[in-house]
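The protein record now logged underneath.
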Amino acid sequence: MNWGIELMTKSDKIRLFRETFRGRQDTVPIYWTSRKTGRSGYSPLCRNEWQRPGCQKGIIKGSCNACKKTDYTPLSDSLIQGHFAGKHILGVYPLLADNTCHFIGADFDNHTADKSPLDDVAAFYEICEAQEIPCYILRSKSGNGYHAFIFFEEPVPAWKARSVAFALLQEAEVVGDETELSSFDRLFPNQDSLSGKGFGNLIALPFQGKASKAGHTLFLAPESGFTASCANQWKILAEVEEIAESVLDDLIEEWQLYRESSEVFKIWKVSKNWKFSDYPKSDFARIAERCAFIAHCRDDAKTLPEPDWYILLTIAARCENGEYLSHKLSEAYPEYTPQETDAKIYHALNSTGPYCCRTIKRISGKYCRACRYYGGVRSPIVLGRPNHTYLRPGQLGQTAAMSGPPCALTKEENELIRRYYAFYRSLDQGTRKPNTSEQKHFQGVCRGRWDARNIHERAYLKYRARE
């Protein structure tokens, strides 16, 4: 629609807002704060809320999920107007009932005060610009983080939107094995499909009355380095550029992206015939006692960023009772679903090994600074093995003397690593699907199935042994 900004009525603005930030219309999450405990969060508005004896909220934990008397309030213009006026704070569930979405959002935050969201946002925006994908940045409700939005002309399959968004984050070096500290928290939607329990994750709606007076929940001007709000918010909203699904399809084909399919999960759930590693089982409690990062993942599960969660699963799923343990560690997250967690466990077991200390240090380095084992073990997974002898950094020379130094790379091999390391690594970690017989063989070599037969495989194995 061609909106005439000067002629827009209050109803026009509400309609424009709802069309742009369109998610589920049959239910709307609203922000609440408990007067007794100070706890806060979002819950879907329900007409039967607190209507005793039917409503068991506050009596039985998680009662809303199993309640058969829910009567959810649909989104309405009056609720949106109240949001604009600051009477309440609304969110939106972006994942629709048919597993499509009208937009994809990325959350950048600085919960631990040791990250730089603005740098990550700027890098992500630049990559989107380079790919000619319109991207819009808004400051979050708290003012400490940012939300990046990409909008679609028509609802697109969530897995396509998420695959491309993750690829853009990797291209921006905001996520990935070589990333230092990243402020990226999660995507909205955070799953490819609904599990049948709940509505998926939610994102706070912008233009909230009280927050906007402080300059929050508003579009930010790129020319200011995303430090200042745009002068005319309604003009920006009316001129939002949306992309077609074909744009996603082109990038998916060009970058060889693939879906972490729920079909894979279904096969695994039925057969359980998969083989995931040669790693002996570890004791998770022993690991958490010795690794501050794993203890953080366990203790902060409710607000754990998605990259940290995935790293945790690559460790926990390989411990005793790994599947059960992984679910117990994950279920504290408010938007936890068994289906999404099962799919992540499958991927963590079959597409990568347990994450290494070196990678963890790059992503959440503060937990590794005082680690007495860093440099003496390759991965936290070994800290849970009762008969393992842990080396201190000062003992590494003795080990090298016994086992011999890693082979030096030739000049040609060094050049290959310089040029193709990211590609090699993506095949090794399973983030890139092998597309040729050579790539499949390379991946098999990385996983120990076959011997190296060409210079690419030999160079990468030699380099990896030195990491």
